[in-house]
Fold this sequence. Notes:
GO terms for molecular function: 3'-tRNA processing endoribonuclease activity. InterPro entries: Metallo-B-lactamas, RibonucZ/Hydroxyglut_hydro. This is MBL fold metallo-hydrolase. It comes from Psychrobacillus soli. Keywords: Hydrolase, Zinc. The protein is α/β, with parallel strands linked by helices. It is built from 8 helices and 14 strands. The protein has helices spanning 39-43, 62-65, 68-80, 96-103, 159-164, 183-186, 191-200, 217-225, and strands spanning 2-7, 21-26, 29-33, 54-56, 88-93, 108-113, 118-121, 124-130, 138-144, 147-151, 170-174, 206-209, 232-234, 240-242. The strands form 2 sheets. A 7-stranded mixed beta sheet has the order 6-5-4-3-2-1-14. Strands 7-8-9-10-11-12-13 form a 7-stranded mixed beta sheet. A hairpin with a 2-residue loop joins strand 7 and strand 8 (124-130). Helix 7 (191-200) packs parallel to helix 8 (217-225).
Amino acid sequence: MECRVIGMWGGFPKKNGPCSGYLIQHDGFSLLIDCGSGVLTALQNYIDLNDIDHVILTHYHYDHFSDIGAYLFSRLVNTHLGRADEELCVYGPEDEDMKKQVEAVAYSRFSSFNEESQLEIGPFTCTFVRNIHPVETYSIKIVCDNKSIVFTSDTSFTNDLILFAANADLLITECSLYEGMDGAASGHMTSEHAGILAYQSNAKKVLLTHLPHYGDLNDLVVSAKKQGNENIDLAEPGMLIEL
Ligand SMILES: [Zn+2]
Ligand SMILES: [Zn+2]
């Protein structure tokens, strides 16, 4: 299994720097996690849009889902052009508006998930835990071939995440705030929280993501590592992690 970071900025994209998007691949099968602002154009540096048929959205904040509308249109047009022959399956938290938006475009289908769900998508088994965030949001665990990737999406720190991410081969944890800031109020984690999660879950490799548009990002890594897990880096667009 491998994971390509497509984008990792929190809130809004930087110039040529997309928001949340992660391409998970194994044996020629591809799954996109989140499709935030800027993801659709950057994604095409690595894969033809018609070669992805499954997209999981962790929640409906624009930095995680705003490019899905354009993805639906690409599938519509490319199906008519004979370049795609599969539906685009979009998975997300239950939401009537999102279901209507997806299914209003031909060749696209919506399925909801929640904390009880176990989705089998190609070679990937996906499970979820509910986050602490202003809208319904889930962390996701993807297991394939005895390897696991856990992506927290957006959340305040919660002890549930430690168990959920236990011994993950790759933990992609949000790190929206610098040490000392108030994560609980905004539904996000500081670098200290991300470090505690990295250490207590015993994750083998850790990427800090959903990064802030201010300050020295290296301070996030220094702060997170202080909690005891040394294998922590910043997520960067285009980064490939092979497990
Ligand atoms: Zn976000
Ligand atoms: Zn959010």
